[in-house]
Amino acid sequence: MEKLKDAVVWAEIPVLNFDRAKAFYSKIYDYDMYEQMMGHHRMGFLPMDPDARGVGGAIVQGQGYTPSALGSKVYLNAGNDLSLVLNRVSLAGGKVIQPKTKITDEIGYYAVFEDTEGNHVCLHSMN
């Protein structure tokens, strides 16, 4: 098997109330979320530099998308210091589950929050 650059290429966060979830993620990232219909699914795209060919993701509302605190965990890039994004979680209607916690010097920090839909989502930063 060839050596992969990234094991993950895309992430989707299930939502029931799209407008509420869009407002939440727009507020914690401090940006205007782009949205569009993809077939029968309403999707809102998380911040990403399309020219960098990095890993992207979206919030998704539609059949087969049920929010849950269980199951796979998505780690969102929180930039240089995840505290900036994490500090907006409660103000946006979410709940901090795990505060900023050091993993190691080489790996950085993580935190976990519950979004407005009940998903447990993780943040990562090096500082």
What does this structure look like?
With 127 residues, the chain is α/β, with parallel strands linked by helices. The chain is built from two helices and eight strands; from the N terminus they run βαββββαβββ. Strands 1-4-3-2 form a four-stranded mixed beta sheet, covered by helices on one side. The protein is globular, with a radius of gyration of 15 Å. The model has no long low-confidence stretch (mean pLDDT 94).
Secondary structure: helix percent: 10-25%
Radius of gyration: 15 Å
From the N-terminal CA to the C-terminal CA, the straight-line distance is 34 Å
Tally the beta strands: 8
The total of helices stands at: 2
Structural class: alpha/beta
What best-fitting shape do the alpha-carbon axes yield? globular
Low-confidence stretches: none
Instruction: Report strand order across the widest sheet.
Output: 1-4-3-2
Mean pLDDT: 94
Tell me what portion of residues adopts beta-strand conformation.
35-45%
Biggest beta-sheet profile: 4 strands, mixed
- H-E order: EHEEEEHEEE
